[in-house]
């Protein structure tokens, strides 16, 4: 029996779909009803000790997808992010430890733990730029300079062993989830922990019309209302967009008893600009996205993945083509 926390949500429901299609017995824990009759469902909060205790009883593996995502609205969200992500994970891990769990735990983490991506200076090699200053962003200087000589930097694909530098409340909670999972693995050496760092996930069932939605969903909602998507900065910021069906397949591979534990980027391996993504969504509408120059201090400039480790260790490669996936989403 595999427990999928957050199994009625965006990514979690696709993980459930994949596991059920593979013939696995699945138990779903979510605040919302799962509305399917081929998986056991518990409607409840992972932060409730009794609910968490019931959810982990008799399970062989866990895909921990439950949590709060996105940049949110303002710093007032700090308590909710910490409660849902950190406390929820802590309660789940405590009940797993009390149940003497010896199976596989897959934690849904995020590329946000990297902060800015990987940058190289022609003079100083790999460098770590400081957080971008509001004055620079307001002046349209969006790319971070070398912290040593102020020269332009070249962005590179970021590997899993890069230094971590969370730059938002959400990012801080995702890194803390990773730390809690690592502590659990040390206390329960018979259990196996794998961390999947999702990059920009898109696809069917994305949350809509909420400040916690991803940028692809926000753009899609604008297009559905006949409005042009508003692209922040100059639109040239790069991300790695990966389809949710590929993310679900990565979870299935990580849950396989023969798969090696570890930390893996879950990504397409092909960076795209945010403007590329907006144009792909709008391609059939006749609406041209607007590049606004606006910015958010919590955003980073370029962060895209090296997908080599997941390919070599898990056998994972993204299969859904970017243009086809965006067309279907639109």
Keywords:
seven-stranded parallel beta sheet; 34% helix; 10 helices; 330 residues; alpha/beta; three-stranded antiparallel beta sheet
Beta-strand residue fraction: 15-25%
Rg to the nearest angstrom?
20 Å
Query: What would the average pLDDT be, to the nearest integer?
Result: 94
Strand order of the largest sheet: 3-2-1-4-5-9-14
Low-confidence stretches: none
The helix count comes to 10
- Helix percent reads 25-40%
Distance between the termini: 35 Å
* Pattern of helices and strands: EHEEHEHEEEHEHEEHEEEHEEHEHH
Report the sheet with the most strands, covering strand number, pairing sense and barrel closure.
7 strands, parallel
Structural class, from helix and strand content?
alpha/beta
Query: What is the 3D shape?
Result: globular
Strand runs, count: 16
What would your notes on this structure say?
The structure is a single chain. With 330 residues, the protein is α/β, with parallel strands linked by helices. Helix content is 34%, strand content 18%. The chain is built from 10 helices and 16 strands. The chain has helices spanning 10-21, 49-56, 78-98, 134-138, 169-187, 215-224, 244-255, 274-282, 308-314, 322-329, and strands at residues 2-5, 26-30, 40-43, 61-64, 104-110, 118-121, 125-127, 154-156, 192-198, 200-202, 230-231, 238-239, 241-243, 262-266, 272-273, 290-291. The strands form 5 sheets. A 7-stranded parallel sheet has the order 3-2-1-4-5-9-14, with helices on both faces. The chain has a 3-stranded antiparallel sheet with strand order 7-6-8, with no helix packed on it. Strands 10-13 form a two-stranded parallel ribbon. Helix 6 (215-224) packs parallel to helix 8 (274-282). The chain is globular, with a radius of gyration of 20 Å. The two termini are 35 Å apart.
